[in-house]
Amino acid sequence: MTRLLRAPVALAAPALLAVIVALVPLVYLLDTSLQRGLQSVVSEIFLSQTATLVARSLALTVVVTLACAIVGTINAWFVVRSSVPLRALWLMLLSMPLAIPSYLSAFAWITWIPSFNGFFGAALVLTLASYPYVMLPVAAMLRNADPQLEDVARSLGVGVFGALMRVTLRQIAPAIWAGSLLVALYVVSDFGAVAVMRIETFTWVIYGAYRAGFDPTRAATLSLVLIAIALLLVVVERRVRGRTAQRVGAGTARVSIRRSPLSVALPALLVVVGSVGFGVGVPVVSSITWMRNGSAINWSEVWSTIGASFGVGALTGGATVLLALPVGILIARFKGRLTDFTEGAVYVTHSLPGIVVALSVVYFGISFARPLYQQIPLLVFGQMIIFLPLVVGSVRTSIEQSRTVYEDVSRSLGTSRMKTIFRVTIPLATPGIAAGGALAVLGAVKELPTTLILRPTGLDTLATSIWKYSSVSDFGAIGPYAVALMLLAALPTAILSTVTVLKVVR
Amino acid sequence: MSALELRGVSHSFEDTPVLHEIGFSVSPGTITALLGPSGVGKTTLLRIICGFETPQRGIVTINDRIVARDGESLVAPEHRGVGLVPQEGALFPHLTVAENIAFGLQRRRSSITRQRVQQMLQLVDLAESADRWPHELSGGMQQRVALARALAPNPAIVLLDEPFASLDAALRVTVRTEIVDALRRSGATALWVTHDQQEALSCADEVVVLLDRRIAQHGTPVDLYRSPLTRSVAEFVGEAVRVRGVANGAHASSALGELSLTQPLHGEVTVIVRPEQIELDDTHNPQSPQGRVIATRFYGHDGEIDVRLHNGEVVVARLHARLLPTVGSDIALRVIGQALAFA
Q1: B131: how many CB neighbours lie within 10 A of its CB?
Q2: CB A423 to CB B104 under 8 A?
Q3: Cα dihedral value B258, B259, B261, B266, nearest 10
Q4: What string of DSSP letters covers B250-262?
Q5: Conformational region of residue A242, where left means phi above 0, alpha means psi within -120 to 50, and beta covers everything else
Q6: Out of A2, A413, A430, whose CB is closest to B103?
Q7: pLDDT tens digit sequence for B167-195
Q8: SS3 state of residue B216
């Protein structure tokens, strides 16, 4: 049933603001790349160098996405469908790679096994860093999948493994696809791991073009190609997901879930232990070793850096949630042209790598907000652009999941539309809003290129300190910052996985 | 005066008409059932009354105040004074039972509010459950809380949207009785949407039958059952046994014999009687219609038989359980009371 409702101004105004925020990078990219005329853009794109870059980036993306789809799904299955005790703890542990920035894992690996640099090392590190993007949605969907379908398959003469592959896997396919898209976008836009592993992908070359000769046109043109790749990924995922099956009928999901004994789950346990050991163990142990072997630690500097990271993270998280909330509500509840346009604009930025956003905010700052250039507000603004799509997605999904009948009842009880949003819509979406906020804080604490480019002179966050000391190979000095960053990031990660855990454990 | 009045309400979604020229009114303090098969536009009509949809044509009046007219909503949903009890209750999962009931009250922390909540809890017999959470309640209890929540702000009318569709059959009758009792005791006006004719006939003072996007009949349950205006109403409200007949004024001759009609008619007609009007005839009257039992259904308290008459037509008779003949036996029938006939 269509609900053609005009959105209240209190929602439409922030949505418009979000559109403007989201479109800043695109305007910059088009303006800059066209400075030397369309001709030079075209010739830049068709350089053989560019083709090699595209091929290498795509190869890395495909390998990592495939690996994450497999590892993430196996881990999700283990947590939800094996009879392992303390499943909430396992899920939390398995989510922890989210708290570890890819560049930090990359350092840990190449200091441990120096020959690991290059394509293989980058693929390994990125897989270990991003399989949770597949695991979390798959775990949630697996919990809600109807276990009776497997019973039916078994009764029709299909074996345990057959039922798993032919029935269960098909049920959770949408979550695997959605998670894989996140992984692919993450890999395309990752800067840290590829930089440490010295593999020339788009982001690394863009950063080089910006740093070395400051060739903004080349950087902007390459960024456009990067966006094209990212958009392609989004389109492919939509196409494929549109064909996957959804649950039919009103059968309740209250049926208790079937759990396989640990003996059956043993192969999966190997993957789980490997994920935790290599994904969490290696960087954690390395960081602690660095800290022990390092020279005297300047604790006051460490503490002030922690403070800076915390402050920037909290500001970004707060600002992004405040802007994402009205946008998410608008998209979920008020269909119309304004909504479609907002949704499109917000999701276009989803594919933008941090480094591109940072460059566009520099341009925006120099052109329109000179006094704010290299000030905290502009840094938060840049990070907000990056994390807005993620937070909007999280808010929107949880609002769409709650039924509109609650809002109808509230209205019929004499509560106005705006008040209903505060008294019903938002409270019901709290888990999604909390998860969205956690995503933004987590991202802001880990984010490297944006912070490097946009931070005020002299401001060091945990991410930039790690980067600074690693570029002079002073691993002893990295130790305390690395440990602090992982501890700080563990909190939002715990919130994030708890939201999923709530769905999984019950 | 009427609590709710609709006049010439028509509505369509894009190019699909859903409601055509709907008009009826509900008197204060009465329960009216809106009866119709699934997908006939009942829920849309409810949403129109609530104000979530605006009808393209027609007038909606609540407590003698016009709230919507010809594609224009004049009063927002929150100011219409309409209490809504949706399917499955839809209690706010983030609020306790007491907080749910207090939701629509002004100054929610005042002592007047607390009293009102208590009063409502007692009305639906849930005084002990004030601090429980919705997910801790059974389906029937959730429905009662939903009713208490709707009644708390003293609405002009309460709308119940298929409130028991999700309950199992045994529970449904109990909960239905409790809800009707609570409605009667509070003196509230109610419009009750249902597709279950038994529910409509047993609970409502008046029934509005919605068939094929329009109102087929509006009357008391007895009227509707005894004197349906059309064949489709006769067949939708209650079970109908249909035979061909030829009418000559007050009587019609059919395979069920010479039947007296509720309304005089002439020519070829469809005659309709209710299964409980057909009885076994053991008077050995040679004029009685004869037939052979082709199926029996035992329900416990009573039962039904399918009988093939001499001309091949099959009729259903409802009998006391201990009178059920066996399949294959030849029997004689008679019809009690008057029959309906439609041209």
Answers
A1: 10
A2: no
A3: -30
A4: EEEEETTEEEEEE
A5: alpha
A6: A413
A7: 787 788 888 898 999 999 999 999 999 99
A8: strand
Nearest to A2 among B13, B92, B153 (CB): B13
H or E stretch at B20 = strand B16-26
- Put simply, the answer to whether B77 touches A409 (Cβ < 8 Å) is no
Rounded Cα distance between A432 and A397, Å, is 7
Which of A173, A181, A174, A165 lies closest to A62 in space, CA to CA? A181
Asked if A413 and B50 come within 8 Å (Cβ–Cβ), the reply is: no
Residue B83 · residue A412 · CB < 8 Å: yes
Other CB atoms within a 10 A radius of the CB of residue B242 amount to: 19
Contact criterion met (CB below 8 Å) for A342 and A330: yes
Determine contact: A411 vs chain B, CB below 8 A: yes
Structure tokens at B35: 């009866």
Measure in Å the smallest separation between the Cα of A326 and chain B Cα atoms: 21
Q: Can you read off the two tokens belonging to residue A348?
A: 């276009």
Q: Is residue A149 scored above 90 in pLDDT? A: no
Say how many CA atoms lie within 13 Å of A276 toward its Cβ: 16
DSSP A329-344: HHHHH--SHHHHHHHH
Q: Which residue has the higher pLDDT, A465 or A163?
A: A465
CA–CA min distance B281, chain A (Å)? 48
pLDDT band at A144 (very low <50, low <70, confident <90, very high): confident
pLDDT exceeds 90 at position A410: yes
What stretches of A374-429 show up as alpha helix (H) in DSSP?
376-401, 405-412, 417-420, 426-428
Tens digit of each residue's pLDDT (9 = 90 or more) over B202-241: 999 999 999 989 999 999 999 999 889 999 999 998 889 9
Measured between its terminal Cα atoms, the distance across chain A in Å is 33
Q: Are B126 and B144 in contact (CB under 8 A)?
A: yes
| Contact present, B98 and B130 (Cβ < 8 Å) | yes
DSSP characters over B303-342: EEEEEEETTS-EEEEEEEGGGPPPTT-EEEEEE-S-BEEE
C-alpha dihedral over A111, A117, A123, A125, to 10 degrees? 10
pLDDT in tens, A62-93: 999 999 999 999 999 998 888 888 888 898 99
Structural contact between residues A174 and A166, judged by C-beta atoms closer than 8 angstroms? no
Please give the share of chain A, as a percent, with pLDDT higher than 70: 92
Residue corresponding to tokens 């090699």: A52
Of A411, A415, A428, the CB nearest to B94: A428
Return d(Cα A323, Cα A432) in angstroms, integer. Answer: 15
- For A413, which of B52, B94, B153 is closest by C-beta distance? B153
Mean pLDDT of the region A90-113: 90
Name the closest residue on chain B to residue A417, using Cα atoms: B78
Q: Which residue has the tokens 């393209």?
A: B56
Residues A379/A455, Cβ–Cβ less than 8 Å:
yes
- What's the whole-number average pLDDT of chain A? 83
Reported as half-sphere exposure (CB side, CA atoms, 13 A), residue B6 has a value of 25
Model confidence at A245: pLDDT above 50: no
Q: Which chain A residues contact residue B47 at CB under 8 A?
A: 408
Instruction: For residue B106, count other CB atoms closer than 10 A to its CB.
Output: 10
Is residue B219 classed exposed, middle or buried when 0-12, 13-18 and 19+ CB atoms within 10 A define those classes? Answer: middle
For residues A142-157, average pLDDT:
73
What is the helix (H) or strand (E) element at residue A271, kind and residue range? helix A266-276
Q: Report the distance separating Cα A155 and Cα A152, nearest Å.
A: 5
Task: For residue B90, give the chain A residue with the closest CA.
Answer: A406
Q: Which pair of structure tokens corresponds to residue A136? A: 């979390």
Q: Tell me the ipTM for this assembly.
A: 0.80
